[in-house]
Predict the 3D structure of the following.
Amino acid sequence: MEATTATKRTLTVRIARGTDESSLTTYEVPWRENQTVLDVVTEVQRHMDSTLSYRFACRVGVCGSCAMTVNGRPRWTCRTHVSRVEEDGVIVIEPLRNMPRIKDLVVDMSEFFDKWKKAGNTFVGTATRNDPPAAVSPASRKRKMADAAIECINCGVCYAACDVVSWDKEYLGPAALNRAWTLFNDERHADPKGVLKQATSGSGCHSCHTQGNCMTHCPVSLSPTGSIAGLKKNALLQFLKGGD
């Protein structure tokens, strides 16, 4: 009796190649158990096309550098299993939107980080190295406000998911404003009013339409939408109080 060989499944992968709005190149990749999207991209780069460019580092959901658009949705590819996103054995992988493409799946994040600076996100301490550590109670209201938003690692997923960024290239974006909120609530920071002023000026927090895409797509379940609402509320309170 002849031995039968099990049919090996393959996954059809369409990957954006080149620069700007380039076409998709199709690859047939072996479909393996517990395979992540990052595993698939790595398989293509190592065994099919060594010129494919993409970013990754930790591979375990810590650094966020492997963020890409998978079937139209921004994700960390190292934490996205193929079984969760494939559609009839097909996945489409593209770079994050709202940022210029450098090549293939790699985007230029310069404007993303430049907007951090515009949002007043540089910490300025009120103490020196010679002073004792600041006595900030973990139970204080401001500490809790900061804690709720402080785990952002700048992966850019929320920025890519934000429709307002697509409409208004000057909009500071959810990550920068989320950081501004944590700094505004940091009791050690020397200029919370300055942060609020920068976060609310120009295309700052008031440009947010509160659609919640940033909150929906955040890989670590933060709520930039809530942080932005906090900035708006405090800006209004400061205005009513006659603040500068």
Summary: Residues 118 and 198 are 7 Å apart (CA to CA). The chain has two domains: 10-107, 110-240. Residues 10-107 form a domain with the Ubiquitin-like (UB roll) fold (CATH 3.10.20.30).
